[in-house]
Design brief:
heterodimer, A: alpha/beta, Rossmann fold, 5-stranded antiparallel β-sheet, 9 helices, B: mainly alpha, globular, disordered N terminus, binds adenosine-5'-triphosphate, binds magnesium ion
């Protein structure tokens, strides 16, 4: 029955001490769609991402990816299955160049890189693909800049290119456009649409314009619980959502 | 499209500059190693080279994986004892004895690393201290190490049955080769596909994990490699000094290697070498001041940290905008 759902959660919950950050969240993400997870600050979106990618262990509940129970898996192994995340706080390797950042991801396909005796010139064949990816996010002229020295928006773009480099079957993007200017937002939105052609995307995004334009389905989270789910229209017409979410300053 | 052509050109220039700077630095270092025995006491230079290699091994962890080991003397000391014992009691020729010492330290690195690597930051450091204290205790108690006396009068023997290391000149060449081998091994490791992942782990471990790398395995491999190279330094030192003693497994020795690396510049190739020579020279030439050596060392250390935050080489490289 879940043949068309790539990622399924059952009663996913996370407690930090007495505080329930996520309570009983059951999601079904359809293969090949762009699914948005929205909600006010502190709703538990990032905590959900952390659990889905096994960066934190759920207090209870079950996670299934491609019909495989991944609840007890380690984060690197989840990534190897093709479920790869980005981070809300820009996660680049600051002292490496943009090219090297992307190449770290591309290196994975060589298998495990334990070859400490080989020169890193062995990685040069990956440069072309890395440059292509940088070009797709508009970073060609920053390929040889240290990632720590480029603007915040560009770091986000670089992070996106890095995530894309591992060619994940499913991408979890945590606010991929936060801190970006209009032009970059348009570029990344277009890119997300483009790369979603043969993969599934679950994204957290505060920019409702982007959410409306991109996503097939939206789940609204407040205080750790699912408040509503459906397409943009259904969700935006939901009174509870208007009150909890739009009312909270995100007009 | 013009931007596209321009950027790689600048970058190629920057890497070419780095490469040239490194080639020059390496040539200068080799030149100094060749000249040194004519102006300084060769035994002193050989010992300093062993410590320099030890610092390079330590730097591989702190500088490129951001792992602070405060128990690294266990690898230096264990290899030193094993090598001394193998050469003296089992009568092995020095290269085999050194190889055995390296193997012992590498094995110790795998075991202690597997347990320590699960912790991070100060907890990792504390676990390495705990292990090194255990190794110290073992070396005090085990019969083959001869406790407080240590292993004395270790024969230098003929390397590979051919080169008589009791000849000071041949010994010097031998030690220089071992040092350069270890130094280049660290450099190659850092500049390998493996090293790229290590640096990425240093910068942002969660991100590396999220890309599907089991970062623990990389850290363990780096830790074991570092242990092996520290062992190479310790075993060679046993042949040079013809003894193995508790000094080399002591907590003070673990502290000294931190000092050497910080003074010279962690995360640089040449910093630990220069730092080791500075610290060893200070101990040597200030020995007449007795207890004051420690105080002077402390002052130099504090001054270095305050004036050269990145260490001597780190500071120079940053100013010249190159990486050494
Ligand atoms: N490690 C933690 N320990 C304790 N509380 C936590 C922890 N991580 C998150 N929380 C709390 O859980 C709640 C949900 O946080 P989360 O980061 O998932 O929200 P979010 O929906 O991503 O918000 P934002 O839009 O601000 O990113 C917050 O109240 C937060 O303070
Ligand atoms: Mg968040």
């Amino acid at each position: 029955m879940s043949g068309n759902d790539i990622l399924v959660t059952d009663g996913l919950s996370k407690r930090f001490g007495d505080f329930s950050a996520v309570s009983d969240v059951s999601l079904r993400i359809q293969r090949g769609t762009i699914h948005a997870l929205i909600g006010p600050n502190g709703a538990g979106k990032t905590t959900c991402f952390n659990m889905l990618t096994k960066f934190i262990a759920p207090s209870s509940g079950r996670i299934t990816f491609n019909d495989r129970d991944i609840t007890a898996m380690r984060p690197a192994d989840v990534a190897r299955l093709g479920l790869v995340r980005s981070f809300q706080i820009s996660a680049v390797f600051p002292h490496l160049t943009a090219l090297e950042n992307v190449r770290i991801a591309l290196q994975r396909k060589r298998g495990d890189s334990f070859d400490f005796w080989r020169s890193k010139s062995a990685l040069e064949p990956l440069n072309l693909r890395a440059l292509e990816l940088l070009d797709s996010v508009g970073l060609t002229s920053f390929a040889y800049s240290k990632a720590g020295e480029i603007s915040y928006g560009r770091k986000r773009a670089l992070e996106f290119a890095t995530t894309l480099a591992v060619e994940p079957e499913m991408m979890l993007l945590d606010e991929p456009m936060a801190g970006m200017g209009h032009e970059d937002i348009d570029r990344i939105a277009e890119l997300i649409r483009h790369v979603s052609a043969n993969r599934t995307i679950l994204m957290v995004e505060h920019n409702l314009q982007v959410v409306a334009n991109l996503s097939h389905r939206i789940t609204v989270l407040t205080r750790g619980r699912v408040l509503a789910e459906g397409d943009y229209r259904t969700v935006s017409e939901n009174d509870e959502v208007r009150e909890a979410y739009m009312g909270a300053g995100h007009a | 499209m013009s931007v596209r052509l321009e950027a790689p050109a600048i970058a190629a220039d920057a890497t070419a500059r780095d490469r040239r700077a490194n080639a020059i630095a390496f040539a200068v270092m080799v030149g100094l190693i060749v000249l040194a025995p004519f102006v300084a006491y060769p035994f002193f230079i050989m010992q300093a080279l062993c410590f320099a290699l030890f610092a390079c091994a330590f730097n591989l962890l702190i500088g490129y994986v951001n792992l602070l080991s405060l128990g690294h003397a266990m690898f230096l000391g264990l290899a030193s004892y094993v090598c001394a014992h193998a050469a003296k009691v089992w009568g092995l020729e020095p290269v085999s004895a050194i190889a055995l010492g390296v193997a012992a330290s590498a094995a110790l690195g795998v075991v202690t690393g597997a347990l320590a690597i699960r912790s991070i930051g100060i907890y990792f450091a504390m676990i390495t201290v705990a292990f090194s204290q255990m190794v110290y205790f073992f070396c005090v108690e085990a019969p083959f190490t001869h406790g407080e006396d240590g292993i004395q009068a270790v024969p230098q023997g003929r390397a590979l049955g051919l080169f008589d290391l009791s000849n000071p000149w041949i010994l010097y060449v031998f030690v220089a080769i071992v040092f350069l081998f270890g130094f280049l091994a660290v450099q190659r490791t850092v500049n390998s596909p493996f090293g790229e992942i290590l640096k990425a782990i240093r910068e942002n471990e969660p991100r590396v994990i999220s890309l599907g790398y089991r970062s623990m395995q990389y850290k363990l491999a780096a830790f074991s490699l570092s242990a092996a190279i520290a062992g190479l330094a310790g075993a060679t030192k046993a042949i040079v000094a013809q003894n193995a003693s508790l000094t080399d497994v002591s907590f003070a020795m673990s502290g000294e290697v931190v000092l050497m690396t910080l003074v010279g510049g962690m995360g640089t190739f040449y910093g630990p070498v220069i730092g080791a020579f500075i610290v060893v020279s200070m101990q040597n030439y200030l020995a007449q001041y007795g207890e004051w050596v420690t105080v002077i060392q402390g002052v130099v250390f504090v001054a270095c940290v305050l004036v050269f935050r990145r260490g001597i080489v780190g500071e120079l490289a940053a100013r010249a905008r190159i990486s050494l």
